[in-house]
Amino acid sequence: MKNYKLILFSLMLSVRIFSQNTAVDTLNTQTEEPFDYKKYYDCDFGEGNVLIVIKKGKEFTDLTDLRKSGKGFAIKMEAIYSMEFSDGKRYESSVVKNITKDSLSMTNFFNENAARLAGEPFKLITYPLSSLKYIRFIDDRMLSLYSRKNIQKNFDLMVKKMDQAKMCPAVIDFKEKNETKVCHFYLTSQGYDLLYEDKGRVYYMEGKVEWK
To answer: Does 39 score more than 90 pLDDT?
Structure first.
């Protein structure tokens, strides 16, 4: 199945971001007016499964230790990860929708508009966890530098039930375009970036933002 690679464009736009994730963000801001998040996207925090990817021989304690120690990383529902599976198919902008004890389900494209541009139906695809082969991370967007983790060779996978199991997307108000878009979080070597779709193509979010 052909899937669009991420377009490495950075658009300098003035935007306002409304995010379900601000409950756990370090930014301290106040909302000027009530915002109906679910008008744009149905997602909320709650108990669910998180896929823990940890180096072989290491012990998992919690997500904070996992991140700070460099022992591995977590895959959460509603976020995006650059993944390749044993069948050779690679997905750059697919949204993880469900995680079970032995499988992972995700969309085949970022959203319906991206699928339409590719001439493909928008659908959910499911893989057994044992078929996850590589995960790629962007090290430097400007230089197009990537690193690749060999999951089957160097990592163990475990599924943990946790609170706040989803990375609910940000809803962004593009002031200059007078548009509101749903933007998913995408894991890189430096942490999470935001991706959004415009006319079927996927872009990085970069520029002046105002968190609400």
So the answer is: no
